[in-house]
Every structure is written in structure tokens, then in C-alpha cells.
Write a structure and sequence with these properties.
The protein has 186 residues and is mainly alpha-helical. The chain contains 7 helices and no strands. It is rod-shaped and about 90 Å long.
Length: 186
């Protein structure tokens, strides 16, 4: 009879541990989702700011259609991207196009002195800093989640519960392009 109680006790402990592991993994997964949603909100603000910035620049740099068109195309691509990997790639392309757009201000002193342009550029710079902070938070959440599903003994239950590895929001191969100084040629 005592062996039965011991077996039952072990089963209860395993079930309690499984529930605990599941709840922890759900919490980590929710944190990743919330962190990505935070990035998404800031990216939407960035996307809303871009048309105003482009319109301001259009008045001063009308012959720079290629750069302006690149920014709009990159914005549209970024707005339709889904999931961290696609969003990351599209946003990196947009960052490069925005860098070229901001570099145009160096070639147009009147544009650089325009109060509306200065305000929009300042808002964009502020958003870029917030996006960078959100990316760091998201990547930290993904790292904790991925570690959680790989650590023993939760790893025994993670696959069974459907928890799979999440992707980081990374600059990836285009890191050198994003970090490169934009070149303006006439």
C-alpha cells in the first residue's frame, strides 16, 4: 500500500511540475508577444511620420524623386511585413532609405533650416531611439523564452506543449548597410 502512495506522490509531483513549467513558458511566450507588439506600435508611429517627412522634403528636393520613391516603397513594404524576421528585414531596408533621405538635408541648407523638417527629423530620431530600445527588450524576451524551452527539465515538456524557438529581431546580414553612412550623389 505504501508503494502505491509513493508512486501516486511522484505522479502528483510530476504533474505539478508540468503545470508549473507550462505556466512559466506561457508567461515567457506572452512577454515575447507583448515586446513585439511594443515594437509594432512604434514602427506604426514611424510609418505615419514618414509621409510628412517626404512631403516636406519634396518641396526642396523635387529632383530627388528616386530617393523619395525608395522611402515610400520601403515604408509600404515595412507596413505589410509579418512576423519578426520579415519585419526586421523590411525595417532595415526602410532605415537605409530614411538615412539617404535625411542625408539630403545636408545638400539643401534651406531644408535643413526648415522648422517643420527639423521637428519631423527630431521626432524620427526620437522614434528610432525608442525602436532600438524596444528591439533590445524584445530580443531579451526572446532569449529568456528560448532559454526557458531549452533548459532541463522544462525542455522535456516544451515540445509536448507546442513551444518552439522564436526568432530574434536582428539586423542580420544587412548590418553593414544599416550602419554605413548614406551617400548623396548629384
Amino acid at each position: 500500500m505504501s508503494t502505491g502512495w509513493i508512486v501516486l506522490g511522484v505522479i502528483v509531483v510530476l504533474v505539478l511540475f508540468a503545470f508549473s513549467a507550462y505556466n512559466r513558458l506561457v508567461a515567457l511566450s506572452q512577454r515575447v508577444g507583448q515586446a513585439f507588439a511594443d515594437i509594432d506600435v512604434q514602427l506604426k508611429q514611424r510609418h505615419d511620420l514618414i509621409p510628412n517627412l517626404v512631403e516636406t522634403v519634396k518641396g526642396y528636393a523635387s529632383h530627388e524623386r528616386g530617393t523619395l520613391d525608395d522611402v515610400i516603397k520601403a515604408r509600404n513594404s515595412a507596413m505589410s511585413a509579418q512576423g519578426p524576421a520579415q519585419v526586421s528585414a523590411a525595417e532595415n531596408q526602410l532605415s537605409g532609405a530614411l538615412g539617404r533621405l535625411i542625408a539630403l538635408s545636408e545638400a539643401y541648407p534651406d531644408l535643413k533650416a526648415n522648422a517643420n523638417f527639423q521637428q519631423l527629423a527630431s521626432e524620427l530620431s526620437d522614434l528610432e531611439n525608442k525602436i532600438a530600445a524596444s528591439r533590445r527588450f524584445f530580443n531579451n524576451a526572446v532569449q529568456e523564452y528560448n532559454t526557458g524551452i531549452q533548459q532541463m527539465p522544462a525542455a522535456l515538456f516544451a515540445g509536448m506543449f507546442g513551444f518552439t524557438r522564436k526568432e530574434f529581431f536582428d539586423l542580420g546580414a544587412s548590418r553593414t548597410e544599416v550602419e554605413a553612412t548614406p551617400q548623396v550623389k548629384f
